[in-house]
Specification:
Low-confidence stretches: 1-15
Shape: globular
Order of helices and strands: HHHHHHHHHHHHHH
Number of strands: 0
Length: 326
């Protein structure tokens, strides 16, 4: 592990984020293997979910024609046939969010356990910290794609309206009944959120804290703030940044940094924007704003619109101004 980590001789920040976390190559030690393999199954599926979401076309044209020609049976059937498999995909995405929640809890169990400081946890369990980062990266990428694809909610709304009409008219909708009413209600709540995966992770982290009263809250919040600091330091330190084999790792780091800030803001009672917070918010925002605007606008929007405490009175005007849209 020593060849992966080089502790800086100077104190980069007050939060222990002064080491290189190998997001590209960190491999599990023997003691990490069981958790790593369990989470790795979820991350393998995550890549397939993103591929499916990236190619999600939607049934907009078929639905438009069905609405314009309500009495034409063939047009209705064509729209229904187009929507049902798409709703099957949406069901898969929703069910995957529950697997993601379970994997996050597995990692939090290990990374917040007593005995080591947050820095030691992340430094010594780099493969698990890397998996935690991959979960956050997936989450923000999924939500970015979802926000720019209105077809998702349009398709699901049409599906629910059609199912309701079938029930009223006692028609059989066997082809679409793989999503029962209770599941449809839960999916509806999930997709109603602008950032459904981030909400899943925020809720899961908050629940982890409330379910584990024997684990001090600081174990979780310090783990999150340290991860944010590590990402910021790696991005703004040329020596570290030069060690990234791929330019993609820069965007990966940025997404992870924003993800842990949002989780911290939802879990910590005072949030991420107060002066006493262990995260250098001004530094993190500055690092984001130094990147090409096209690659970080979605991340800045995530900080603007999915955090809990940005608009609190305790948040400095300078931070609010830094996050004002251009």
């Amino acid at each position: 592990m020593g060849n992966l980590i080089k502790v800086l001789t100077r104190d980069i920040d007050n939060n222990g984020g002064n080491f290189f976390l190998d997001f590209e190559n960190a491999q599990p030690s023997q003691s990490e293997t069981a958790v790593w393999e369990e989470v790795n199954q979820t991350l393998t599926e995550a890549r397939l979910v993103l591929e499916d979401l990236q190619t999600y076309r939607g049934a907009g044209e078929e639905i438009r024609q069905a609405i314009q020609s309500p009495g034409v049976e063939g047009v209705q059937e064509k729209a229904w046939s187009a929507v049902v498999p798409l709703v099957g995909k949406l069901k898969t995405f929703y069910e995957f969010s529950q697997k993601l929640e379970s994997s996050l809890r597995c990692l939090l169990d290990v990374l917040t356990s007593s005995g080591l400081s947050p820095t030691q946890h992340l430094e010594q369990k780099q493969s698990l910290a890397r998996q935690f980062a991959h979960i956050l990266h997936f989450t923000l990428r999924f939500d970015e794609l979802k926000m720019t694809n209105p077809a998702i909610q349009n398709d699901f709304s049409y599906y629910r309206r059609t199912i309701s009409r079938m029930r009223i008219n006692n028609l059989s909708g066997n082809a679409g009944n793989e999503v029962n009413n209770e599941l449809a209600n839960r999916m509806s709540l999930f997709y109603a959120s602008a950032t459904p995966m981030l909400k899943t992770l925020s809720d899961a982290t908050s629940k982890f804290v409330s379910d584990n009263q024997d684990v001090p809250l600081e174990n979780t919040t310090d783990c999150l703030s340290t991860m944010a600091s590590v990402c910021k330091v790696m991005l703004e330190t040329p020596e570290y940044r030069s060690r990234f084999a791929s330019e993609e790792t820069v965007l990966f780091c940025l997404r992870v940094m924003v993800g842990v800030i949002i989780l911290y803001d939802h879990v910590h009672p005072a949030g991420a924007f107060v002066k006493t917070c262990n995260i250098d918010m001004k530094g993190c925002i500055r690092v984001l704003k130094e990147q090409p605007p096209s690659s970080v606008e979605g991340l800045l929007n995530a900080l603007r619109y999915t955090t809990k405490h940005l608009n609190d009175e305790a948040t400095s005007k300078q931070i609010k101004n830094m996050l004002l849209p251009n």
